[in-house]
Each structure stands twice: as C-alpha cells, then as structure tokens.
Amino acid sequence: MSIFDLPKIDGHCHVLDPQRFPYPAEVAYHPQGQEVGSAAYFAHVMDTYAVRHALLVGPNSGYGTDNRCLLDAIAQGGGRFKGIAVVQADTSTAALHALQSQGIVGIAFNPSFHGLDFYNDIDPLLQRLADVGMWAQFQTSGDQLVALLPRILKVRVRTLIDHAGRPHLADGPQAPGLQALAQLADSGLGVIKISGFVKFSQQGFPFDDAQAHVQRVWQIFGADRCIWASDWPYLRATSRLDYGPMLKLIERWFSPEQCQQMMWDNPARFFDW
C-alpha cells in the first residue's frame, strides 16, 4: 500500500482562520498568505491524503492563548479533530476539565519561541495536567530540554516532544539536549513527533542531514512511542513545503510497518481514536 493510501492520523498541525477568528492585536506575529489554513480547507487536504484524524495544535503565532479557532474546528469536525491548547500558567483544574470536555488532550509550551524564562512559573500547571491526565507538549530547541526535564520528571506528566526535539545538528549526537531526550524516553513519560525537519536541517528539502537524527530518536524512544506529524501549514518555514512531498520523504525513510505504527497505531492509542 502506498503511503498516500495508508489511513493516517496527523499528530501536529494548525488551523488559522483570521477572517472568522481575527488575530489578537497583542500577538506579535500574524501569519498571512500561504501560512493561513482554515479547518474547512484542511479537511480537503486530509481527504486527499487519507488522513482520518488530526491533532490540532494552538499556534503561538497568530493566536497565542486565544483558542477559539481551535475549539471551533474541533466542535465542527465531526470527531476528526482533537487539540492541544495554549493557556496561561494559572489555568485552573476546572478550566482544564472544561477544555477536556471540548476535545483538548494537552497543553502546549514553546520555549523555542518564548525562551525558558517565560515558563518559570508552570510547575503547578504541569502538576494539574498530570492530575487530570492531560499531555504537556514541549517544543524545545538545542539543549533547552535539559532545564525542563527535572520538572517534568518530578510531576510525572505525560510529555509530547515536538519536531524530533529540534536539535542543533552541529552539536553532534552526544549533545546535552539529546541526552535529556534519552532520559525522558527511559522514564516512559515521553512520546516524540517525527516532524519539523525544516526547523533544524541546514540543507533544506529533502533534509538529508536530518535523517540520522530522526533515526536516532526513533531508536531512543522506540517504535511504540513515536508519532508522525505534518506540521501543516508550515508556519515560518524558510522554504516552500507541501504535504505530498513530505509524505514521500517519510516513505523513503521508514518501512511500511514503521509508517503504520507511527501514522496510525500509536496516535490512535495515545489520543483515544
């Protein structure tokens, strides 16, 4: 079976619909043009590539902590979507339960965008996420996970790592950030997304310099704790990207059995589809 025909769950993508849900003025970056993709349009993309479900992630770009577009997409999606929201650090347990009732399965933290200091006060929120059974999703770059890992392990919160950990490839396979990824994998708390190669490759598509790292994190986390994601519609990408060529790249890097596992079996189990 071609990868295009394999039923899939997309583990990380965004919907942006500034006509229906205008960007808050206080959010510095407002995606435009090819970066914008409504839920209605994304449904056509999903149908084209046999994507049955998708985990929508609230983007720090454009919306910040405004989750209205995300929640509307889930509500109108007929069960196709679940979500990762962005919230303030003081969000209560009751508010987390309310988000859960609307299809939110986790909360996103983006030190690669905001820096580590921005998240100095999130430990109580991480504990609340652990208590209610939600995921903490981190997009880190370089060695940022080193500072976060003790906090994650202390509260034992289930953790999603975005975009293969976004290494600095020049630092090599023994970099502290990769050692922290290995510790997270050993803890049993972590799941990593096989995605976002444009965010750490120095070569551009087809990201040949990223392949060794991707295979390394596959081995570190194990086949049952890796999920595939498109990162559509490729916010702030430094070069043109499209869904089809990105799928073909995955087909070249992984066996059909591995694709089945990370594109369907694992995300269906983790997110109750």
Top keywords for this entry?
273 residues; alpha/beta; TIM Barrel; 11 helices; 8 strands; globular
How many separate domains make up the residues?
1
Strand content: 5-15%
Strand sequence of the main sheet, in spatial order?
1-2-3-4-5-6-7-8
Silhouette: globular
Could you state the order of secondary-structure elements as H and E? EHEHHEHEHHEHEHEHEHH
How far the N terminus sits from the C terminus, by CA atoms, comes to 22 Å
Notes on the protein architecture:
The structure is a single chain. This protein has 273 residues and is an alpha/beta fold. It has a single domain (8-270), classed as Metal-dependent hydrolases (TIM Barrel, Alpha-Beta Barrel), CATH 3.20.20. The chain is 39% helix and 14% strand. It is built from eleven helices and eight strands. It has helices at residues 39-48, 60-63, 68-76, 93-101, 111-114, 123-132, 144-155, 176-187, 211-221, 243-253, 256-270, and strands spanning 8-13, 51-57, 81-85, 104-109, 135-138, 159-161, 190-194, 226-228. α8 (176-187) links the parallel β6 (159-161) and β7. α7 packs parallel to α8 (176-187). It is globular, with a radius of gyration of 17 Å. The mean pLDDT is 97.
